[in-house]
Amino acid sequence: MPQTNAYAWLGQEPAPRMLVQAVRLLGTLETPGTRDNPTILSWADEVGGAVEDVYKADSIPWCGLFMAVVAKRAGREPPRDPLWALNWGTFGVAVPDRPMLGDTLVFVRRTPEGRRAGHVALYVGEDEEAFHCLGGNQSDRVCVTRMSRSRLYAARRPAYRQRPQNVRFIALARAGALSSSEA
Fold it and tell me: What Gene3D superfamilies does the record point to (predicted)?
């Protein structure tokens, strides 16, 4: 269930499949402190491969894990090493013009130590200043947040055999602060 009435319409979208799967996970929270949310940890087992060997605590950035489980559940193959958000810049096909509903958006961010890192989420709309993105590890939960357009690294679309009819540009009102760091 979307976190506010502003995004309640997401629950009525019939496609794209990755977006439908992501909406089902809205509200999932990271467990504070030294405990871990068993739901988030189970996603690593579900994704499998090297992910389950690496991902052992929800204190590890998990936006890529969220996207990998959403992709798997939607019948899509995640990119190699999906925990690294910037690797999602190779997922599917490049967006030829502007992002649309359900596209994968990859953003650049700086770690507290000043290193370059990334964040990955799904496009649900945009305003003049930001993309509205549904993703994991956004304020330690699965939610929709606004991401500055200037941070966009890559926009990717699943390689559809037939693009769902509701994949479209969505103009939204500016609401809420811009995210500055998602880890």
Answer: endopeptidase domain like (from Nostoc punctiforme)
